[in-house]
Specification:
By secondary structure, this protein is of the alpha/beta class. 39% of the residues lie in helices and 20% in strands. It has six helices and eight strands, in the order βαβααβαβαββββα. The chain starts with a strand and ends in a 10-residue tail after the last helix. The C terminus is likely disordered. The structure holds flavin mononucleotide (FMN).
C-alpha cells in the first residue's frame, strides 16, 4: 500500500506528462511518503480494450488506487481532451473509487489553446468516479517543460507545483499523523 498513486495516461515514452509525475513522486518520497506509479501504457491492452476489470494487472492497479490517500493523474492533451488510453483505464475503475481521496489533475499540451481541458474534460470524469476533493489542476505547456539533462520546469510552474506539493504534504500528514515528514524540505 502506498500513500500516493500516480496515473500516467500518455501512450508515449518518454513522456512529458509522465516526467511531471516522476518529479512529484521524487519530492513526496523525499518527505518520507510512499508512492506507486501506474503507467496505463504498460497495462495489458487486450484487457483495457475489452473492459476486463478482472485482469490481474488491472486488479492490482485498482487496489493501489483504492489503498492510496492521494491520486495524481497526468495526461497529455489529445484533440482538446485527455487521451483515449486514459479513458479506457478510467472506464474500468469502480464507481466511487476516488471518494475520500485528494485528486490532483495535471495535463501537458502543445499550446495554451486547451488550457481548460482539465476543467471541461478531465475533472468531470474524476467527479464521476466519486472525487470530491479535486485540487486546482496544473496545465503545463510543452515550452514550460524543457529537456536538457532531465526535464526542467519553467519557474512559474515550479512555484505552482511547489505550493501543491506543500498542500499534499499537509493533507497526508493530517491523514496519517506523520510528523516526521514536516521537517523534510523539497
Ligand atoms: C495525437 C496528439 C494529439 C494532440 N492534441 C493536442 C491538442 O489538441 N492540444 C494541444 O495543446 N496539444 C496537443 N498535442 C500535443 C501534446 O498534448 C503535448 O505535446 C504533450 O505534452 C505530450 O505529452 P506526453 O509527452 O506526456 O505524451 C497532441 C499530441 C498528439 C500526439
Amino acid at each position: 500500500m502506498s500513500d500516493i498513486v500516480t496515473i500516467a495516461g500518455s501512450p508515449s515514452y518518454p513522456s512529458r506528462s509522465s516526467a511531471v509525475l516522476e518529479i512529484i513522486r521524487e519530492r513526496l518520497e523525499a518527505r518520507q511518503f510512499t508512492t506507486e506509479s501506474i503507467h496505463v501504457r504498460n497495462l495489458p491492452s487486450e484487457a483495457l480494450l475489452s473492459g476486463k476489470s478482472d485482469d490481474i494487472r488491472i486488479k492490482e492497479a485498482i487496489q493501489s488506487i483504492t489503498d492510496a490517500y492521494v491520486v495524481v493523474v497526468a495526461t497529455p492533451v489529445y484533440k482538446a481532451a485527455y487521451t483515449g488510453l486514459l479513458k479506457v483505464f478510467l472506464d474500468l475503475l469502480p464507481q466511487q473509487i476516488l471518494a475520500e481521496k485528494i485528486v490532483f489533475p495535471i495535463a501537458t499540451g502543445g499550446s495554451q489553446a486547451h488550457l481548460l481541458a482539465i476543467d471541461y474534460a478531465l475533472k468531470p470524469v474524476l467527479s464521476a468516479l466519486g472525487a470530491q476533493h479535486i485540487l486546482n489542476g496544473l496545465y503545463i505547456q510543452d515550452s514550460q517543460l524543457q529537456y536538457t539533462d532531465g526535464f526542467e520546469l519553467d519557474p512559474a510552474i515550479e512555484q505552482r507545483l511547489d505550493k501543491t506539493i506543500h498542500a499534499l504534504t499537509r493533507h497526508l500528514i493530517h491523514s496519517q499523523n506523520q510528523p516526521a515528514a514536516i521537517a523534510v524540505g523539497k
